[in-house]
Amino acid sequence: QSAWATDTPPAQGHLLAEHFHLIYRIGKDETYTVERDEVIRALTPQGANSLGKQVLQHSTKLQDLTVLEAETIKADGRHLKVKKDAIETQNGIVGNISLKDHEITSVTFPDLSEGDCIHIHTRMVQKEAPLPGLLSAAEYLTDGLIIRDARLEVEYPQDRDLRIDAKGLTPVRDEKSGGLRHLAWTHQRESVRTPEEAEAD
Asked: What is the pLDDT of residues 164-197, one digit of tens each?
């Protein structure tokens, strides 16, 4: 899930990803760890409104989620840390659906306005596969986001048969060392696209 998925849909062209880095570390079984480090700038008041509260969800049975760092970075360079009481959790409900093993974490960023950034760094541990023998993950970057610096890294045992479909990304690393294979891609986007209503994927 995107860490900027909020109750308010992101405004088209009103957000800029200054820094969007993902690192997947895959184990020998169906477990993995993913670290997500994001700095997203609000280019307009609408963008700031959409960034103010970030909502993340995970299965407490299958996953552990930790917010490692969260802060507002003001346009003048000041860093305002998110206070502990501004990181709230709710159990069991996702929309109108009751999921007893799910937990929702909401992070509210202080003093956020046009020109400011949010910085959120999380770690999610997939400690159990949803189905035996299944290892699957997907990441998406919305067309409504300008991207200055995006990087995806994957590290996994080189004897595993891992299949990856990376669309629109530029490969920058493919190395093997210490029994592991290390892959990396980057991506930039200077313009946005407004999706057609009810369009097909």
From this structure: 998 889 999 999 999 999 999 999 988 887 767 7
> For the sheet containing 53-59, what is the strand order?
53-59, 97-108, 87-94
Give me the pLDDT at residue 199, please: 74
Q: How many CA atoms lie within 13 A of 3 on its CB side?
A: 28
Q: Is the pLDDT of residue 3 over 60?
A: no
- 78-103 residue pLDDT tens: 999 999 999 999 886 655 666 678 88
Rounded Cα distance, 29 and 26, in Å: 8
Span 111-117, mean pLDDT?
A: 96
Q: Which two tokens stand for residue 110?
A: 């202080």
SS3 of the chain: CCCCCCCCCCCCCCEEEEEEEEEEEECCCCCEEEEEEEEEEECCHHHHHHHCEEEEEEECCCEEEEEEEEEEECCCCCEEECCHHHEEEEEEEECCEEEEEEEEEEEECCCCCCCCEEEEEEEEEECCCCCCCCCCCCCCCCCCEEEEEEEEEEEEECCCCCCCCCCCCEEEEEEEECCEEEEEEEEEECCCCCCCCCCCC
